[in-house]
Structure formats: C-alpha cells, structure tokens
Amino acid sequence: LLRENAALIRTIKELQNEGNDDNLFDYMKQLHRNILWLSLLADGTSIKNK
Q1: pTM beyond 0.90, yes or no
Q2: pLDDT tens digits, residue range 3-50?
Q3: What is the pLDDT of residue 28?
Q4: Which residues contact 4 (CB under 8 A, 6 or more apart)?
Q5: What is the SS3 string spanning 1-48?
Q6: Residue 19 region, left (φ>0) first, then alpha (ψ -120 to 50), else beta?
Q7: Domain map of the chain by residue range?
Q8: 31 Cβ partners below 8 Å, 6+ apart?
Q9: How many whole angstroms from its chain centre is CA 16?
C-alpha cells in the first residue's frame, strides 16, 4: 500500500505539472482512502498494544 501511495503521489504531481485536472480528483480520492485506511489500522494497532 505504501508503494501504491508513492505511485499515486507521483501521478498526482505529474498531472498537476501538466495542468491535467480531469483525473486528478480520482487519484486524490484513492490516496485519501489509502491514508485513512492506514491511519485506522495504526490506531487499531496502538489500542491493542496498550
């Protein structure tokens, strides 16, 4: 998932540099979902370890 996020960030950066906003929001939504999922996973792990 971290590699996917890195690829998404590169793609978002490229699209922004090109001024291509057509698909930008879709990539940003996917990145947001991934980051949210990772944060929820981290919260669950930290709760279990307490």
Answers
A1: no
A2: 999 999 999 999 999 998 888 999 999 999 999 999 999 888 655 555
A3: 98
A4: 34
A5: CHHHHHHHHHHHHHHHHHCCCCCHHHHHHHHHHHHHHHHHHHHHHHHH
A6: left
A7: 2-48
A8: 5, 8, 9, 12
A9: 16
